[in-house]
Amino acid sequence: MRTSFNIPDGLIEEFDRAWRDEGIENRSRAVREAMLEFVESHSRLEETTGEVVALVGFDYRHHEVIRELHGAQHEYQDVILNTSHTHQGEWCLESLFCRGDAERVRELTYRLRDFDAVRRVKVMLIRDGDE
């Protein structure tokens, strides 16, 4: 299936450099691998039940979203154990160390992704409900 995407020039240049450095044969293959990795990561988060320990990391533009982010963090304080914050140029990088019900951590993750000023959200399940 052919499809097209609107991708900023800088991002596509960086992506092309990365897949070539990895020795991947072409951009289509690299996109398929990246999509598969995303689907696998999303599926694990969706399928996990019970108590989890997780690290949720995200970056954002501070001045555009800080009040809303603080509100979300207070709303999910039942699963957020600790936070860490650092500055990377005009962006802020935040990590949330979480423990609690997988559904609550999932809700928190999706809530963070809803903010336009949040560039990306990554979740690392350290211990899932099956362990």
Summarize the structure.
The protein has helices at about 10-20, 25-45, 60-75, 100-115; strands at about 50-60, 80-90, 90-100, 120-125. It is an alpha+beta fold.
Search tags:
single chain, 131 residues, alpha+beta, Alpha-Beta Plaits, 2 domains, four-stranded antiparallel beta sheet, 4 helices, 4 strands, 46% helix
Describe what this molecule looks like in 3D.
It holds the Pfam family NikR_C. The protein is α+β, with helices and mostly antiparallel strands and 131 residues long. The protein has helices at residues 9-21, 27-47, 62-75, 102-113, and strands spanning 51-60, 80-88, 91-101, 118-127. It folds into 2 domains: 9-44; 50-127, ACT-like. Chain A, domain 2 (Alpha-Beta Plaits, 2-Layer Sandwich), CATH 3.30.70. It contains 4 helices and 4 strands; from the N terminus they run H-H-E-H-E-E-H-E. A hairpin with a 2-residue loop joins strand 2 (80-88) and strand 3 (91-101). 17% of the residues are buried.
